[in-house]
Amino acid sequence: MIPIRNAVPSRYPPVVTWILIATNCLVFLFQDSLSPDELELFLGQFALIPARYSEAFAGDTDLAAVDFVPFFTMMFLHGGWLHLILNMWTLWLFGPAIEDRLGHFRYLAFYLVCGLAASAAHVMFNPTSIVPALGASGAIAGILGCYMRLFPLARVVVVIPILFIPLFFEVYAFVFIGLWFLIQVLQSVMALLLPAASGDVAWWAHVGGFIAGFTLGPLLVRSEELYRVYYPDEGQLGFDVKGRI
Questions:
Q1: How far is it, in rounded angstroms, from Cα 18 to Cα 61?
Q2: How much is the CA Rg of the chain, to the nearest whole Å?
Q3: Beta strand pairing status for 155-162 and 165-172?
Q4: Which among 156-160, 199-203, 235-239 has the top mean pLDDT?
Q5: Rounded to 10 degrees, what is the CA torsion of 135, 141, 146, 149?
Q6: CA–CA separation, 88 vs 234, rounded Å?
Q7: Structural domain count, the chain
Q8: Could you give the angle at the alpha carbon of 124 between the alpha carbons of 130 and 181, nearest 5°?
Q9: How far apart are CA 107 and CA 95, in angstroms?
Q10: Is residue 138, in this structure, part of any structural domain at all?
Q11: What is the model's pTM?
Q12: How many Å apart are CA 12 and CA 24, to the nearest integer?
């Protein structure tokens, strides 16, 4: 299922979401301009390599504060155009509603914390991996977790391509996101049991980011004093203010 629209209206422009998308795209264009040797050096410095930290925790090496920068920078790197497009499309669809309810600065802090939680989960469950981990999907998983918590009955329009025929459906957010999260958990467990079958995807980063977003997001929703709630007649396209018909 590919999501193409959500029905939750937003009152304010999603400025931070736009900035995050622009930043990710600019960083990727810079990556794409590097030679293979330069890219390898760049990723070795700014992508997340778990083995580097497990060796330090075992006392074999020492880490400086700068060595933890990849926990942050990895969420702005991507491994290819498809990786970038899928992540930015998901951020574009679900980010504005969360930014609208949290406020710009809380939303930015929330996004970064979810990304850091995703990085920590990846290192914890893949301590010996020497494969550079990168991508915004852990932070975006936090947005999905928060969306599921705030708008479980919102309708999400998805498309399922059957051969060359696109089929469009409306599903509840908790169904779409719940199935997505279940797949991440199953793939994460499979990666533990059969590491070679993981496909170099940071499944545990998705799980960690989602749990962080599901837990923290609702705690950061701004009060009605700072954000006037929608009235019943202020939905959009036949949906109410929580994206329900």
A1: 40
A2: 19
A3: antiparallel
A4: 156-160
A5: 180
A6: 28
A7: 1
A8: 105
A9: 9
A10: yes
A11: 0.88
A12: 22
Q: What is the pLDDT of residue 26?
A: 97
Separation of alpha carbons 213 and 117, rounded Å: 9
Q: What is the helix (H) or strand (E) element at residue 171, kind and residue range? A: strand 165-172
Helix axis angle, 81-102 relative to 104-125, nearest 10°?
A: 130
Judge whether 155 and 172 are in contact, CB under 8 Å. yes
Would you tell me the crossing angle of helices 104-125 and 203-216 to the nearest 10 degrees?
140
Give the structural domain span for 184: 2-220
Q: Does 7 fall in a domain?
A: yes
Q: Which two tokens stand for residue 116?
A: 């850091």
Domain of residue 12, CATH code: 1.20.1540.10
Task: At 201, list the tokens.
Answer: 């995807």
Spatial contact of 202 and 75, defined as CB atoms under 8 Å apart:
no
Token pair, residue 8, equals: 């939750």
The residue among 72, 208, 194, 66 whose CA lies nearest residue 134 is 72
d(CA 176, CA 50): 31
How far apart CA 26 and CA 130 sit, in angstroms, is 26
Q: How confident is the model at residue 85 (pLDDT cuts 50, 70, 90)?
A: very high
Contact of 134 with 106, CB cutoff 8 Å: no
